């Protein structure tokens, strides 16, 4: 009885470790397939890139402006007004928008919109046994299906980070205008605190976010089972696991970046 209880308690942990290990294996196979010739996935890569671009640009636009205006914008300037220092809002936006909010909103929108579409597409193919048919025909599903989605999501997530930064900062400008403050001090403290490392770190981080989303969503789609209900369950699990992976990787990346670049301060100057 004790053994049965122990096995039942250990089963979820074992399942989690197995899934993480399988995702790491899929990542390795995807990277090898991406650089090893031939390269038959060109048209699929372009199609997936344009698909994600069309699907995500407007939700990302609304989300970044809303987050930039509400959370770091209105809340921060109301706090700074208590100390008579609303001009420090620009410096705060380097910390809030460039380093955290814009990359997070970018990744969340891509995972929730493009990632779920990828999981549903591959899950439906798995249920219809199309993936097994491709293997029987000698076509590698990883090279022809996973690699183009992996590369497309990495590229589009990195590019969308610039897009998110622009409109996230625009949200801060709106908050400054609404509170009848001049924009000169906002831009002065913003550029005084902004470092090149902040920008390239943000872009690199979101590009790797795209890789995490692609691997998780492709894996859950290719391992879906149980008909339409199973595909829906895989989509739900893919979003949750992608978010957890993004949060964990962001913590590790930020700590590594701050450790290797101590000139980056966390207090607006």
Textual characterization of the structure:
- With 269 residues, the protein is mainly α.
- It has one domain.
- Helices cover 86% and strands 0% of the residues.
- It has 8 helices and no strands.
- Helix 1 crosses helix 5, helix 3 packs parallel to helix 7 and helix 5 crosses helix 7.
- The chain is elongated, with a radius of gyration of 22 Å.
- The model has no long low-confidence stretch (mean pLDDT 85).
Which terms would index this structure?
0% strand; mainly alpha
Write the SSE topology:
Layout: H1 2-35, H2 42-82, H3 89-127, H4 130-136, H5 141-178, H6 183-193, H7 196-222, H8 227-260
Helix pairs in contact: 1-5, 2-3, 2-5, 3-5, 3-6, 3-7, 3-8, 5-7, 7-8
């Amino acid at each position: 009885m004790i053994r049965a209880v122990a096995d039942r308690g250990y089963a979820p942990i074992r399942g989690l470790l197995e899934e993480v290990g399988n995702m790491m294996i899929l990542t390795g196979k995807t990277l090898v397939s991406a650089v090893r010739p031939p390269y038959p996935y060109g048209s699929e890569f372009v199609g997936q890139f344009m698909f994600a671009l069309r699907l995500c640009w407007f939700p990302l636009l609304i989300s970044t402006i809303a987050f930039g205006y509400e959370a770091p914008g209105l809340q921060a300037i109301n706090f700074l007004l208590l100390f008579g220092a609303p001009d420090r809002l620009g410096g705060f936006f380097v910390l809030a928008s460039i380093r955290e909010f814009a990359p997070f909103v970018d990744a969340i929108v891509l995972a929730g919109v493009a990632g779920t579409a990828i999981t549903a597409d591959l899950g439906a193919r798995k249920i219809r046994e199309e993936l097994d048919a491709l293997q029987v025909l000698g076509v590698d599903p990883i090279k022809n299906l996973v690699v183009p989605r992996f590369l497309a999501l990495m590229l589009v997530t990195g590019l969308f980070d610039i897009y998110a930064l622009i409109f996230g900062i625009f949200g801060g400008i709106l908050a400054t205008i609404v509170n009848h403050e001049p924009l000169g001090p906002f831009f002065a403290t913003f550029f005084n605190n902004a470092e090149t490392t902040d920008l390239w770190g943000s872009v690199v981080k979101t590009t790797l976010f795209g890789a995490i989303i692609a691997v998780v969503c492709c894996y859950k789609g290719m391992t879906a089972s149980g008909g339409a209900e199973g595909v829906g369950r895989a989509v739900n699990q893919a979003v949750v696991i992608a978010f957890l992976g993004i949060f964990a990787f962001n913590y590790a990346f930020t700590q590594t970046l701050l450790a290797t670049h101590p000139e980056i301060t966390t207090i607006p100057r």
